[in-house]
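Transmembrane protein, Ephemerocybe angulata. Tokens?
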Amino acid sequence: MKRNHNFNPRTLSLGLLGWLTLGAWAQTREVRVDENDPSISYLPAGSWERSTAANAMDQGGHHMTTFDPTATATFTFTGTGLAFLSPLWGETIAIGIALDGATPIRVDLTDPAALGGAEQGSTQPSAIRWSDLTLANTEHTVVFSMPAGDTLSVLDMLIYYVPDTTVTTTTSSSTTTKSTTRSPTSTSNNDTASSSGTKDKTGLTIAIAVVCAVGGLLLLALLLLFLRRRALRRREHAAWLKNTLPEEGTGLPPPPVQMDEVDDGIRAGGRRFKSIPSRKSLLDASSSDFGGGPVSMYSDFGTLAGYGGETTPGGRTSKLRNVVAAGQGGVPPLPMRRSEDVQTQQTATRSSAASPTGRKFMFGGES
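Tokens:
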């Protein structure tokens, strides 16, 4: 969308004039004087009356009224400007203002929209109804009076302006000194409320920014903690897999450990089992002990081989080394079956009993 860049020279000149005037008045502060301040001299005595009921329309809640055409209110100050504040009313009310001996100026305090209606009290809140901000910084005197032809005058509050040499705020029962920045064309008393509202908004904005910053830091800390814990769990899982799974590239578990000794004292289920030597190992052992002769199932040195042999002092039977012979493909020899041992023992017993000499029968000859 195209924008219109045309400008009005008159608007520009008024804007520059406003900025120059604002710059000239930027370093001033206002001093508020309420209607009951002792610096205001009301004459004649008793001609002015202060409102009894508090009214939110008034500055400070009250105002002064007079019905006396000769009544005056005099105020002396030193400053660069003066402003008069008052509510607007639903009836004809005016006041005359004479600054530094000049002819009084009539200031109408009537609300045209409410004039002639049922409401005769204040209809608009107190605000600046007259001001002169072009004064030299010297002593000035202002006199308030009832204009000719009027029957009622009201005075609510005065504000005068002084150079802002110090930034202080002092409050008494009737006079308030306050730092401010004003424009000489201002005709409203909403500056204080606007300033307070701006400060409140600024404070709220700062509070929201602080809360958002703290919340963002907390979220960032939680995110970092979560990432750290997840990385730790991944490292622990990788270590577990490395120690549990087979070596990479083999696809097979580690080879089993091959025992070359069989303990005759193996216990299982409370019973004691004895290892049975293989036939070949038994034959080889017998041949070496008896000079390579035939193997005997019984001898003077023991009972049936593999059963009832001598034990060690600790009660454990001797160990038989079961060595796999080379050339047999790594398959150990078959052990002698128990049924064959028993049958051989019974046959040998019967043969011994039938022998006339009573000698034990041996394979391959007599003993």
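The longest strand covers residues 122-132.
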